[in-house]
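Reproducibility note. Readers wishing to regenerate the assembly model reported in the main text can use the exact inputs given here. Chain order matters: entities are listed in the order in which they were concatenated for prediction.
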Amino acid sequence: MQRIINDPDNVVDDAVRGYLRASPNLYAATDHPRVLKYAIETPAKVGVVTGGGSGHEPAFLGYVGDGLCDAVAIGEIFSSPTADAFLEAFRAADRGQGVACLYGNYAGDNMNVKMARQMAEMEGIQVKTVIARDDVASAPADQREKRRGVAGEIMMWKVGGAAAARYDDLDEVIRLAQKAVDACSSIGVGLSSCTIPANGKPNFTIEPGHMELGIGHHGEPGIEVVPLPNAEAMAQAMCDPILADQDFTGSDVAVLISGLGATPVMELNLLYSHVADRLETEGITVHRADIGNYFTSLEMMGATLTVMKLDEELKPLVDAPAQSLALTR
Amino acid sequence: MQRIINDPDNVVDDAVRGYLRASPNLYAATDHPRVLKYAIETPAKVGVVTGGGSGHEPAFLGYVGDGLCDAVAIGEIFSSPTADAFLEAFRAADRGQGVACLYGNYAGDNMNVKMARQMAEMEGIQVKTVIARDDVASAPADQREKRRGVAGEIMMWKVGGAAAARYDDLDEVIRLAQKAVDACSSIGVGLSSCTIPANGKPNFTIEPGHMELGIGHHGEPGIEVVPLPNAEAMAQAMCDPILADQDFTGSDVAVLISGLGATPVMELNLLYSHVADRLETEGITVHRADIGNYFTSLEMMGATLTVMKLDEELKPLVDAPAQSLALTR
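Running the prediction on these inputs yields the following structure tokens for the assembly.
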């Protein structure tokens, strides 16, 4: 395990300390060691909170900033933050206008957000939630409630954060964040595994010369394991289930390709050119493409593709200014 | 070899096509397939050009943009761009005020820039150069002319680009870019190797449980191979030769830690906290820290540390606005 760490059991606390030291203009500590808030005091707007396991950097904490999230709850690697952490993030983000908690559909996060929300409401903090379910590989379209959240969460934070920044009220922020992530269909391909520091061994196995289509962000099983295709065929294999999930024809879309960690960014751009060709062939217009390491899984190789259907309501929110470690516009 | 590519011999051309499709607001094609220029026509200012081998993304092309470079020459993976490519980049960047070519000290780049510069001058384009030599591990301080350029190049582009953006003349852009990179001392640690697509096999070997201190960006041998230390000891091992290279005591500095590709960003921030502790102990004040994947080597694990001594002339140029794929301020 070739890692830059001290005690494997303290990786997250040590990393949080590093983020605080490196980016004091972005992050401020809170009363909870696993909660960071935006360093700049925000005005009386709806607070936007996210949270999730570590190991997905720059998600989740990289999306704290101007026009995005106001506070983040940080879990152990690939584990949900605690209910206490979500509660403290709600407190840190609340400006008396309520809090939008925008997170992904994982059992631990659901449980802890629910508990934190109950505790917050006893303190007089109103919390509403949007749960991302954009991973088309994790359940069929008619069982969307079972789908996991993957990189479509970024578009949920972007749109919800932009709505809050223009002083939309809580119901409107929630409506738009929900609309944003409902407009997203995502799928991942895994080309290699990763090693959680506290385990010291690869999390799962992908044989060389193969890829797992539909893999989850923690190595959850996908649709099938297939021989590793070339980039052009990989793009088709990723576009097929996405284009079957929603009718994008004639629409403008935002496209996000995120590496899973160790895949070089040049390969993500190479993959994108084939995705762009395919979308063009289908009569779909790319309004904006974000290609890079936006939501990773430690040092996995592979990528996720997210296609988001845009309308005139979503477009200005997707394009609105933002300033953070992960995303700047 | 778990790569997202088509024909391994066409990786660079395929990737360039991807960058052009993904970021039409940043990149425009030129008459040379391996040269990209900034998509927005710049005014009559000094042109800033860089170039180098592929596989270091976001370097070099990620530093084309506002307040940075105007054109980039793109080589094969880990190989210099051709003289023709550098020449076309000079043409693309020239606005009649001359061109500053800011690149790293590698034999192929030196030869091809020299040839391109002679050809450009026959066309009436004045080109002056700064050659980055910031890697303290590659030669002793009294043989600085032998040192390789590594991530200190980013500060050279940042300062040179900012000087050109405020309409400094060519001699002044060159002076400031030279001053910027002379103010940088850098060192890398390699924790694992990488595989060039056209070769299909790892470039070199680092045994698990070991690291190579002072490794170059293409796996060039470092100072020594040592058992992999914890992050705190690794930070000391990187700071020692940097602090011995220049007298930083009492100075303000900019710090840049770049991952080499596959090392998670959380570990880079974790490493930074120990670097920050050490610098504080030495009476050095961190003015700014950039932590992320700024200059990689495909999917190598490891990191580079650059410490740059600032004065009142360099500080505003390091902080000046910039807009690009790799760096935004």
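We highlight two features of this model. Chain A has two domains: 11-183, 184-318. Chain A touches chain B through 57 residues (CB under 8 Å).
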